[in-house]
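User: Here's a structure from my thesis project, written as structure tokens. My advisor, Dr. K., wants to see whether a designed sequence matches the one we expressed. Can you design one independently, without my sequence as a hint?
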């Protein structure tokens, strides 16, 4: 029987080399796209990686959530996207809007976004850079990578550390009770859609009067 998740299987040096080569090729592809006037923030510039349990929102959903975040953050507001890269990418397309945004993400491909990228592993919820001050974001949008109470509970620690108050959580409908318990959020009427259909019904949850009802 396998032990807990703590025993992360170590990759062989061969696999590591292959991975590095893969990422290098990917970076070169990204680089080519950028040099061809490709918009690096558009969804699809980084493909979803199912091994990391990534599922991008549909364009409409990502845009709707991005607009909601901008409204909720207010003028000059700060928005944190925790494991919600497709919303982050949509936020970056909102040119001329007055807000700033950070992405906390396990997938290091997002480091192409420079200082806005913060490596994040939900298993170490408060292992964050010192310059990420507590309660320094007007709203935190989070989409925990797994539908488990452990994942939600740990991601919740991060959310509570970062937010001044407002929380927008996207997770499965089955997580409704846990979401209320750990974050005090309630389900909205708005139903987020993914670019590929997921087996689990997904919902949005908030703890403030949002435009998603």
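Assistant: Designed independently from the structure alone:
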């Amino acid at each position: 029987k396998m032990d807990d998740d703590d025993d992360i299987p170590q990759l062989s040096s061969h696999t590591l080399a292959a991975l590095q080569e893969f990422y290098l090729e990917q970076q070169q592809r990204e680089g080519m796209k950028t040099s061809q006037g490709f918009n690096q923030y558009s969804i699809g510039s980084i493909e979803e990686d199912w091994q990391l349990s990534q599922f991008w929102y549909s364009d409409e959903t990502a845009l709707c959530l991005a607009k909601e975040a901008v409204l909720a953050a207010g003028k000059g507001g700060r928005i944190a996207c925790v494991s919600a890269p497709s919303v982050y990418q949509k936020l970056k397309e909102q040119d001329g809007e007055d807000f700033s945004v950070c992405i906390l993400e396990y997938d290091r491909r997002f480091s192409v976004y420079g200082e806005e990228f913060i490596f994040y592993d939900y298993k170490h919820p408060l292992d964050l850079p010192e310059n990420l001050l507590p309660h320094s974001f007007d709203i935190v949008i989070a989409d925990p990578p797994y539908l488990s109470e452990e994942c939600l509970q740990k991601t919740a620690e991060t959310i509570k550390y970062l937010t001044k108050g407002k929380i927008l959580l996207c997770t499965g409908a089955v997580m409704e009770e846990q979401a209320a318990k750990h974050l005090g959020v309630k389900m909205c009427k708005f139903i987020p859609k993914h670019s590929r259909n997921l087996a689990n019904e997904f919902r949005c949850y908030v703890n403030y009067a949002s435009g998603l009802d």
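When you compare it with your expressed construct, this may help: The radius of gyration is 17 Å.
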